[in-house]
Amino acid sequence: QVQLVESGGGLVQPGGSLRLSCAASGSFFRINAMGWYRQAPGKQRELVATVTSGGSINCADSVKGRFTISRDNAKNMVYLQMNNLQPEDTAVYYCNADVLVRQFLPSRNYWGQGTQVTVSS
């Protein structure tokens, strides 16, 4: 199995910054894409940003220019630097990874438990 553990969430004022980290552990052949999703109260979970093992990045328009995703393939970690946070960014942020557990078999999708980000004055 693969485990994803997030850290770095918290309470911040509008305009502030937070840096989220996610560490993947377990036994697997390769991690394909890693990224971040978020879910606000009463809303469906939505993509924030993802990055492939080759470094290709996909991010939501709502966070483009404010958030930066990065990945350390050697450490199996992904990060989300969040700047100029706004109240609408308030949500539970979930780490996600598409993992090739064994070579030549289909990949599997894994989720972390989530970390709360609250933006409020």
Features:
11 strands, elongated, mainly beta, 121 residues, four-stranded antiparallel β-sheet, seven-stranded mixed β-sheet
Structure report:
- With 121 residues, the chain is an all-beta fold.
- 0% of the residues lie in helices and 56% in strands.
- It has no helices and eleven strands.
- Strands 2, 4, 5, 6, 9, 10 and 11 form a seven-stranded mixed beta sheet that branches. The protein has a four-stranded antiparallel beta sheet with strand order 1-3-8-7, with no helix packed on it.
- The mean pLDDT is 97.
Radius of gyration, whole Å: 14 Å
Q: Distance between termini?
A: 40 Å
What class would the helix/strand composition place it in?
Answer: mainly beta
Query: SSE order in H/E notation?
Result: EEEEEEEEEEE
Give the overall shape.
Answer: elongated
Low-confidence blocks of residues: none
- Kindly report the average pLDDT value: 97
- Number of DSSP helices? 0
Oligomer: single chain
Largest sheet: 7 strands, mixed
Total number of beta strands: 11
Beta-strand content:
over 45%
- The percentage helix is under 10%
